[in-house]
């Protein structure tokens, strides 16, 4: 009797919340999957069309381009953010002055809203850099970067400016778990700084590398705010990310079912990327 | 001996990096303090005469206090409800991981982390307006619910390090699980509650996509959404636009300056669990 009461209380603590989670998270996701097999436009009649939407997606140049752009952007940004934040973390972990101040500065972008930050950078690209470039006759930079075919670079810069914060803190936490005597042993063995990094430091922070790569890839594959504030998908549709396309055409383009199918493909892509990364990266991890 | 020397290349690298981080904010401040004529002459220089009125003008044009209040209510409610509910679920899961039912719930939440928002977004808006929750109250519920995946993961990791003996003793004294959780365990969770509170607050305050799809009434707009909605009206007056950007960033920036050590530690703790 007492045992039963014990579990009743546990169930009362869990079941209502799980039900809410199902209703607000999983139910819409399942509904979206159902829509993807229909021709529904948001109103009127609804008809089952099988795989028609999915076949259409793979023949749609706009959709294919958005995947290509999103994958390229996510790959470049994920790698760049991780390299930069690892470098910053290594520098912060070295013997330096004002380490607390630097740490505070490098982490600050994490607390700022991406949309507003992107608006600030938008002005930087469209006004400040061209003005300065004109003064100094740097012809290559007198144009608004965001209006050229290199607009994606602008998005990468903003994403790195903000994204490095979180990864730096994680790497720093990782570096601080390495005991000092491991380095000393390597130094007595006469290993160079380069060898010490690849032979000692990097393998030991590999779990942090794995989690950072997986989280960053997931974040940047879903890039949205930066696109809205910097390029709005332009010029043309060069910088339309998958999330941006699903939002724009799904809500106001009358493509509810079609973009739901797109979202299903997107879900599969994210799962595959995460699984491949975990398999590939976890193999490299070592234990001290 | 060698390690006691200051690392000069690292210092130089950090200084360059810090300039790169601070430059956009410096520019934003300089732009917001100038009148439009002076901005035409120099963007980055110190203003010859500080033009404060950009701030009250932007405040009036963007209904700043209204958007601030909306953001504040949403963030505060999301944080409080998240801490109260998510810690409770995590407790029930952490203490019953040997039971298949609870272990499956844990995996269910974990797996949900990999579901991207776009697939939820399109049907969600219809579902929420159908039950009359396409407003800020619905938004609060969504923050509390969508945070569960990550938060339960963090809470469970921490709860497993709290010894059970404490609870067993209380149980023998006849206390119910409900009382044990709220009177014994919840207070012990204080550091991790702070972590979850900080992460939730930063997320809810800065989030753009959820308010964008959920809120239709401009009177309910949050600060980021308001910036987006009024973007068009600033095509000419950059100074005022930047005053409003700065005011949108300021609350979080102030909190960060005051509590940065706490925030950095909190986020680190959440991330490495």
CATH superfamily of the largest domain in chain B: MetI-like
H/E topology pattern of chain B: HHHHHHHHHHHHH
Give the averaged pLDDT of chain A, no decimals.
Answer: 89
Sheet/helix structural class of chain A: mainly alpha
Rg on CA atoms of chain A, Å: 24 Å
**Which fold name fills CATH's third level, the topology of the largest domain in chain B?**
MetI-like fold
Number of strands of chain B: 0
The gist of it:
By secondary structure, chain A is mainly alpha-helical.
Verbal overview:
- The complex is a heterodimer of chains A (288) and B (273).
- Chain A has 288 residues and is mostly helical.
- Chain A has helices at residues 2-35, 52-58, 61-93, 99-107, 114-135, 151-175, 180-188, 193-204, 206-221, 225-230, 242-252, 256-282.
- Chain A has one domain (61-282): MetI-like fold (Orthogonal Bundle), CATH 1.10.3720.10.
- Chain A is built from 12 helices and no strands.
- In chain A, 40% of the residues are buried.
- With 273 residues, chain B is mostly helical.
- Chain B has helices at 8-32, 36-41, 54-61, 64-94, 100-112, 117-130, 136-159, 165-172, 177-188, 190-206, 209-214, 223-229, 238-272.
- Chain B is globular and about 75 Å long.
- The interface between A and B is large, with 91 and 88 residues.
Secondary structure layout:
The complex is a heterodimer of chains A (288) and B (273).
Chain A: H1 2-35, H2 52-58, H3 61-93, H4 99-107, H5 114-135, H6 151-175, H7 180-188, H8 193-204, H9 206-221, H10 225-230, H11 242-252, H12 256-282
Helix pairs in contact in A: 2-12, 3-6, 3-9, 5-6, 6-9, 9-12, 11-12
Chain B: H1 8-32, H2 36-41, H3 54-61, H4 64-94, H5 100-112, H6 117-130, H7 136-159, H8 165-172, H9 177-188, H10 190-206, H11 209-214, H12 223-229, H13 238-272
